[in-house]
Each structure stands twice: as C-alpha cells, then as structure tokens.
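Note to self: keep these together.
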Amino acid sequence: MRGKVFVSYQAAHKYLFDRVDFERSRLTREHRGSFKLDRMKAILKALGDPQDSVRCVHVAGTKGKGSVCAMTASCLEACGYTVGMYTSPHLVDVRERIVINGAMMPTADFTKLMGVVAVASSSVEGKHGEATFFEIMTALALVFFADQAVDIAVIECGLGGRLDATNLVKPDVTVVTSISLDHTQILGDTVEEIAREKAGIFKKGVPALTGEQTKGVLQVLREEAEKAGTTLEVLGSDVDFSFRFESSPELGPHRRVCVASKHSSFEHLAVPLPGEHQAFNCGLALTVLDRLRDRGFDTPEARVAVGLSRTRLPGRMELAWQRPRILLDGAHNAASLHALIRAIGAHVQYDSMVMIFGCAADKDVDAMLEKIALGADKLIFTRASDNPRAMDPRELQKRFTAISGKMTQVAPTLHEALNLAARAVTRGDIICVTGSFFLVGETKRYLADLVAKRAASAV
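Structure:
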C-alpha cells in the first residue's frame, strides 16, 4: 500500500497526536462500548495483515507487564535474536514504545510508515470511524516489525486484553501478570471481572502463563484458558519456581530465582530489577523463554543470564539524579505503590524521603494515598502539566490530611515541586517522584533540559 507523504517527522507526529487518546482521557463507564476490534481488524487487513508474519509473546496484566516484557526481550536479544518490543506508555519520546534490540524506531521509518498507516486508517474510516492514538501506534509497530523481519516481538497490551488493539496478534506464548484494581470504569469493578478481560488474550493451543494471584482470579483465568482451548500454567504450582534474597558487594541487595522444567534449569539467576515483586516477574519471563524452546527458539541458560543482567526499565525505580538523589517510579495504582514502598525500603538507604506525588482523578485515589502515607516522611502534591486527567493537587492534599498527619505541601507545577523538595532534603535524604507515568516523564524531560542548560553554560 502506498502511503500518505508526511513532509517531516513533526508532521507525522502531529497526525498521531491529533487522534483520540484514551491514555489522556478521563474514562467513565460510558466509554465501555468504545472498545471494539472491528476497526483495528479492518486497518490491519488494509495493511496486508502484518501481524500474521510477526511471531510474538503477548503480555497482559495490571502491574508487571513492562518488567516481564523488558526482561523477556533482553534475554531473547542476548540469545542472538532480532527482537521487537511494543510497550506503553512512553516517558519522553513516543518512539520509546516501538524498539528493536533496544533501539527506538528511527524517525525516518516513523515518518514513512506513519504515512502508510494513515492511508490504511482513512480507507476504513467511512465504515468504522476514526482510529485512535493507540490503534495507530499498534498498527505502526506491527508494520515496522514485519518490515524489519524481526525474529520475534514482545507485545504489551494497553488497556485490558480481550478488546485491546493488540489482541489480533498470533502469539507463541501468552502471559497475564499480577491482577489488581485499575481502570475499573472500563474493565470491571472486581479483580475477577478485570481478570476475565485480561484473559481475553488466551488463544487455542498457545501456552498461557501467570504468576501469583488471588484464588478468585486464578479460578477465572483457568476457566477462560479452558474456554480458549489451552491450559493455564501458574508460576510456583504448575511451574517449579523459587527465589531468595541476598546481598553482595557487586549487586547489593537483590533476589535470585530458579525456574526448572524438562527443558531448562535456570538456577539462581540474579533478578535485574529491585523489589520482591520483580522476582515473580523474572520467573514469568524465564518461563516464557522455556516455553519458546518448544516453538523452536534456542535460549541457553548462560545467554539468558547475560540478557537478564542487561535489562533496563526507565521510569521504574530509576535513580535519575544524584545530588539531591531523585528516584522516579511510574507506580500508578495502590498495588504498584505498595510494591514501590517495599522496594525502596529494601534497596535504598536514606534518612528521610520526600515524595512528589500526582495521579489521575479516575484512579482509586484514597487507596493510593493510604499506601504513600506508609512510606513518605513528607509529601508534595502536584500535577503533570500534560495530563488532562490529573487530579487537582489541593484535592489530593485535602484527602491525604484526612488519613495522615504527615507534613504536606502543594505545588501547582512539577518544577516548583522539585524546587520545594530540593530545599527540604539533606545529603542523606531522597526525593521520590511517583503516582503517574506522565509525572515521571515530565521529570525526565525537566532533568534532561537542566543537563543541557548546564552544558551550554559551561561552553
């Protein structure tokens, strides 16, 4: 298919960001009918069904998706494969969502292939309506991976699973990570309802994996796997899995995991990401690699260990600045914040923690505030400038004061929040920015600009 000619990357970028973007929309129950696969199916058909030529691992879940994707992709790359990875959201550059062997999609390819996707999208618009931001991005990723003939792609679901735009892929393995309450307006009011939506990625004859879940969630996942024509394997019960905590001069405090099967014996591999929850995510990634052996992939233990050690996941427990120390984490629901507080306690030495917090108004805000009350010594509430869903920081402060007597301040902008925090900390303290990937991304851009300005002034 010939494409629309965008005169520049900026023009292609504008076309994309002019689409309806549910990541930046305040979702309500009225939006439940907005998610269908008819339009995505038509777009991909107009593009020649690129998904049919892309082998992939498909990952859904509430938390841990990005970690499982990053570890799986890094290990496959270390095993010698050309690996695509499609994730969301991005922090600074939208091309972070589409990478091959760790490298972002080049601007030239983005511009050219966005033109192809734009033509396909417009060709079905009369019957199906205008494509969304996420549908366009998903189509772009699949076209790029097919064009570059990747050996395998690791594809992260966006919202849900059953009706997610990614759910037209033909995976070699499917994974559902930890399920907790999030996006309840769209996915359901209970973890069991949400699990049913996530399990919509299960496919006939395709290995289905999951980790630690509640009894009710496991029951739902098993039911849905049976309906789909596959069998669910659970880490720790159906899959031989164990982990332990240790500390060493080289790695500091960390966890080591073991995953064994008839094909593999991944013994005492160091988990590259901090936090107990990452041990389970690492176990899932290793089990994916094991199941891929049945599908013709060679994943020797020594190369997998190298791949794990090279795993990087920006915006998750990321120490982005040294003086003062600024830690970034995109924890955006109560379960993720609970895991973050525990991980900081286990892996970061500090005297006092000042937390800069902002979140979307359609989250379970009170549950999130209860979690941060357990870890932060002082709170500064703010909002991301580019998130229309962001809650007013004064409302956050009001709600927090009702549950905690800890010291709080309000800053109308992230810049002011960072300045307030910097004045409040001493050398042994730490600043943690969390509650929203929008807030984390804005922080990364602000710090990068600060580095650029200092470099320019030094010339």
